[in-house]
Amino acid sequence: MELNGTGRVNERGHLEIGGVDVMDLAAEHGTPLYVYDVALIRERARGFKRTFEKLGVTAQVAYASKAFSSIAMIQLAEQEGLSLDVVSGGELYTAIQAEFPVDKIHFHGNNKSEEELHMAMDYKVGCIVVDNFSELSLLDRITSERKEKVKILLRVTPGIEAHTHDYILTGQEDSKFGFDLTSGQAEEALKQALESQGIEVLGLHCHIGSQIFQTTGFLLAAKKIIGQLKKWNAEFSYQPKVLNLGGGFGIRYTSEDEPLRPAQYVEEIVTEVKNQIADSSLSMPEIWIEPGRSLVGDAGLTLYKVGSEKDVPQVRKYLAVDGGMSDNIRPALYEAKYEAVLANRPNDPVEETVSIAGKCCESGDMLIWDLPLPKAGRGDILAVFCTGAYGYSMANNYNRIPRPAVVFAEGGEARLVIKRETYEDLVRLDLSYQQALNSK
Ligand SMILES: *Cc1c(COP(=O)(O)O)cnc(C)c1O
Question: How far apart are the CA of 108 and the centre of ligand 1, in A?
Answer without folding.
Answer: 10
